[in-house]
Input
Amino acid sequence: MKFSSAISFLLVGTAAAFAPAPVSQRSSSALFMAEEGEIKPLRIGTRGSPLALAQAYETRRRLIENFPELEEDGAIEICVMKTQGDMILDKSLMELGGKGLFTKELDTALLGDEVDICVHSMKDVPTWLPDGTVLPCNLPREDTNDAFITANGEIKTIADLPDHSVIGTASLRRQAQILAQNPTLKCVNFRGNVQTRLRKLDDGVVDATLLAIAGLKRMEMQDCATAVLEWDEMLPAVAQGAIGIQCRSDDERSLKYIDALNHMDTHVCVNCERAFLEALDGNCKTPIAGQARIVDGQILFRGLIAMPDGSVKYETEKTGAIEDAVKIGKEAGEELKAQAGDKFFEMMVEMSPQQVLGQLTK
Output
């Protein structure tokens, strides 16, 4: 089948791809010596999915490039843990509660001094952080757009899908924008890691699906994409394509390391987008999209909120100075909140998961 070879290659190669790179045998740096005289590693907390591990090892690689002492044997340790969002796959994210499903266990480990830094997909991170933690670092951002993937690879756009086609997606943002283009299409809740979703597509469970092209690129699976959708066809999620690194606010050693990795343009755009989301007080029942980019020295922001069935959609676009990025995002959120009115958000809160989804989990 179309995606089987790509999936098999990734799964077979996972251990080799994510294995620690060869390390030098130089004497241990005093920076990592604990009181007992043993090496104190920099512990990286991560989820265990192939994508999460790819992001953790990208972080490791960048740390070693910037701080050669971290190449020493035992200087960095990858700590894998499961989150609630990873363990419960037969329910929609909305039914599980939405916010923090992929971060809570990592937050607990960080505050409990079980890890020193946590590597996140930024779109999974709530707009609030636990007291005692900060997220001062974003790695250089990948392409933020969504990949459109069809079983036969011949249909290149959502508009070209035949009426009543079935699309697999766990995202209300994608569902709303899909149904706004063609209300006859059916969106079914589609959870699991990238490999699981592609396998379901290969097995004919759905006619098409959408995934972040950033994740596919990080796993070298971008060839699975039929097409990459531009903003006009599918506006991406807030912070999509960005990796964030979190640590304890009083951990000077970790702060030194991750501050050196921060990519300021990405950080500015992500902060703009998260300010937009925070202004909307976005929850898992509300389809929200928001993207910022720097164009000719200014921030360009586009945002969207919609009804889950795509019947109502509110959009905004703003530009301004880079130093005003957070203000621009906040004002965009407040503008859409005013456009939609209190009744719109009250409906979102009152709707049950079944009313919002309208479909069974596949």
